[in-house]
């Protein structure tokens, strides 16, 4: 795979620029359940539900397989509050979307992902449209007792070609741990952009950075011989688990369809923590 500052593409089984991304995960028990983060297009809207349906989307659909994809209220085990998520039935079981990128925010245009750390912690956007669920909630979902999590990223390019990346395990740390990322074994057809090509590009094990919270390893970082002191604040303008800036950033600046070449760089070098 190759990577340039102004043009980044997948160069493996496929080479595409992403135009739609969603991030969702599925939680399952140790005996077969898993947690998946996956970028996908929204499914059928479920009827509004005020009551808590379950600890996560996987449990909800396991209890009632006839329920449609849509918005549900969940309360992860041992977490102090409930919250709404978009549950997706595609693939096997129920997936909880934690990020969606398709250029369609709740007010019509793209959601702004250039946010402070406090906003990345609590989440922003609307779960039926472009959004980021929130680091606090992602941590709660990935730390339910007796449950393992798997991350899946799906992508679609301007020509409709699709790609995916799956990580066998996935979790993030808490606030004191700066939401440190932990990923398991990779499989897919777009390349492992989280770990990159060089050791310095590996984002597995890194802290989360935002425009006002610099936790990357830059001092400075160099991209095409240009120096940057902050990946989040200067180069990408978004929150992510940057390591020497690296090859993955699924929360970067949105590119519309007519200018999507190299757009994948915003999400991940070859993939997208999205269709995302």
UniProtKB/TrEMBL annotation:
This is Fibrinogen C-terminal domain-containing protein. One of its GO terms (cellular component) is fibrinogen complex. Residues 52-271 form the Fibrinogen C-terminal domain. The keyword DNA-binding does not apply. It is found in: Secreted. It comes from the Eukaryota. Keywords: Disulfide bond, Glycoprotein, Secreted. GO terms for biological process: blood coagulation, common pathway; fibrinolysis; platelet aggregation; positive regulation of heterotypic cell-cell adhesion. Pfam families: Fibrinogen_C. Its main location: secreted.
């Amino acid at each position: 795979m190759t990577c340039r500052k102004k043009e980044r593409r997948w160069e493996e089984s496929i080479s595409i620029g992403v135009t739609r991304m969603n991030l969702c995960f599925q939680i399952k028990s140790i005996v077969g359940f898993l947690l998946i983060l996956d970028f996908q297009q929204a499914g059928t809207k479920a009827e509004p539900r005020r009551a808590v349906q379950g600890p996560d989307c996987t449990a909800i659909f396991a209890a009632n397989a006839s329920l449609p994809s849509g918005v549900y209220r969940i309360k992860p085990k041992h977490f102090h509050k409930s919250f709404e998520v978009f549950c997706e039935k595609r693939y096997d079981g129920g997936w909880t979307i934690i990020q969606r990128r398709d250029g369609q925010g709740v007010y019509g245009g793209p959601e702004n992902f250039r946010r402070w750390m406090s906003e990345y912690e609590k989440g922003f956007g609307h779960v039926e449209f472009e959004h980021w669920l929130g680091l606090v909630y992602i941590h709660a979902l990935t730390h339910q007792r007796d449950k393992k999590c798997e991350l899946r990223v799906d992508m679609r390019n301007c020509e409709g070609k699709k790609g995916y990346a799956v990580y066998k395990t996935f979790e993030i740390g808490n606030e004191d741990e700066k939401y440190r990322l932990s990923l398991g074994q990779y499989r897919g057809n777009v390349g492992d952009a989280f770990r990159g090509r060089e050791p310095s590009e590996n984002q597995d094990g890194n802290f989360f950075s935002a425009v006002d919270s610099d936790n990357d390893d830059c001092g400075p970082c160099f991209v095409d011989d240009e120096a940057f002191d902050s990946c989040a604040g200067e180069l990408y303008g978004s929150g992510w688990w940057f390591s020497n800036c690296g090859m993955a950033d699924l929360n970067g600046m949105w590119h519309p369809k007519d200018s999507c070449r190299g757009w994948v760089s915003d999400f991940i070098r070859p993939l997208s923590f999205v269709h995302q």
